[in-house]
Design a protein that fits this description.
- The chain has 3 domains: 220 residues, HUPs (Rossmann fold), CATH 3.40.50; 143 residues, Isoleucyl-tRNA Synthetase, Domain 1, CATH 1.10.730; 52 residues, no CATH class.
- Helix content is 42%, strand content 15%.
- A 5-stranded parallel β-sheet has the order 7-4-3-12-13, with helices on both faces.
- Strand 14 and strand 15 form a beta hairpin.
- Helix 1 crosses helix 14.
- The chain starts with a strand and ends with a strand.
- Bound molecules: zinc ion.
- Zinc ion (ZN) binds next to loops.
Length: 511
Amino acid sequence: MELRFYNTLTNTTEVFHPVHADCVRMYSCGPTVYDFAHIGNFRSFLFADVIRRTLEFFGHRVHHVMNITDVGHMTDDASADGGGEDKMQAAARRMKEDKKSGKVPEGAVQNPDDPYQIARYYTDAFLEDARTLGVKVASEYPENILHATQNIDAMLEMISQLIANGHAYVGPDGVVYYSVESFPAYGRLSGNTLDRLMTGAGGRISDENQANKRHPADFMLWKADSSHIMKWDSPWGAGYPGWHIECSCMARKRLGKDVIDIHTGGEDLIFPHHECEIAQTCGATGQETFARFWMHARFLLVEGEKMSKSKGNFYTVRDVLQGRVKDDKGQPTGVSVHPAVLRLELIKSHYRGNMNFTHKGLIDSAGAVKRLHDFRARLEAATGGQAESVDLSYPILRDFAAALADDLNIAGALGVILPWAASTPTDPAAALGALNRMNEVLAIAPLQSAGAGQAGANDEQAEVQDLCRQLDDARKRKDFAAADSLRGQIQKRGYDVKTSPAGTIAEKRLA
Ligand SMILES: [Zn+2]
């Protein structure tokens, strides 16, 4: 079966073949750790996770790398050279207030002025959310999540190479700029031309530092700034790197020197971030292209509106899991959501359409997750849990695969699996085998894919999830003594026990 993906670079759907047959190399832009990640961020991270899992479903080995931006991402990031201030610096200004309001627990960030402590706190929160939602790179391969601040050397090296190759220069203000005119392909990914950028179309050129640049669209690689909250020595003075350079460097460092297979991100990263990444990598290496496939997930809306803090419809992953979602009338629901339900809600609509996150959608997703859990329970009861391995000739699995192969048509794949899950297959062992394979991609029934090698925090999570399942079983049997004892065991591990349409939920108590 041919796998097809839509490629932003060529604006067409293309058949996917890896550059090297033995391994697909894939890079995803990760979070900027100055705040809790919101559900729009996670739509993009889960989209990347589904690509990874789909590739694995079709038998590819995948090397997936993601970054953590803990320096250099400016508050005004719509223009290439990013005006405003470093988001980490902004977070440090905010931190005392966040601790006072209880958004950040007392004791979590000992020194609110220390950007490294802030970055560590939000990195841990991100990794916890990512594991909770079944993002495989976070739960099984955390060594492939790289931090910008730990890769400054690679950035200094690439910047020097760009200067040597005539693609970068030191401006009179001491900032190292990339010269966009030195790279004729600049604008190919986003469809921008230098002429259009010159006229400031879409406000994509900031007014800052114009006098110091050769071209107004030139963007920052290194900023010498001895007053910055995080700084490193460099040949151009102590300072900090631009946001774009980190991804070019970390992709190369971990995925090797060849053109990579897939680069993912949210659509807001197409310009300037990904356009700049291409210019840097190709400028430094002489490669014709950085990644073969550029894949982007579109925006997330909430009840049809743009998510914004001022509208009160801005949700982090924690807000949703802990029951702070409002219904379509803006009334608080107070109902906590199982992570599998949120995962399904965020992956179920096609990534190339805007996703509308709604309370009704969550209820539908809860119903779908419950149907799949019940189906699994019936198949396990019928087979004693013995699954038969099946290949793509198994009809339901073939239809599911065909939908996925068609540019990740998850809605189509769910259209195959959900009606089937309401049936009673005559071959339960094979059906269980097929369900297991489908769940390797969806990862919602159960949330963690079968056989996942987890350690530490995930062992505990798996254990607690297992206790929740036992608790649901005890309730079904009306064995209330057993249910009480299981509830006590979960609580003793530091979790609150709640019920939801998808069954018992254990929520880690906040510190
Ligand atoms: Zn990036």
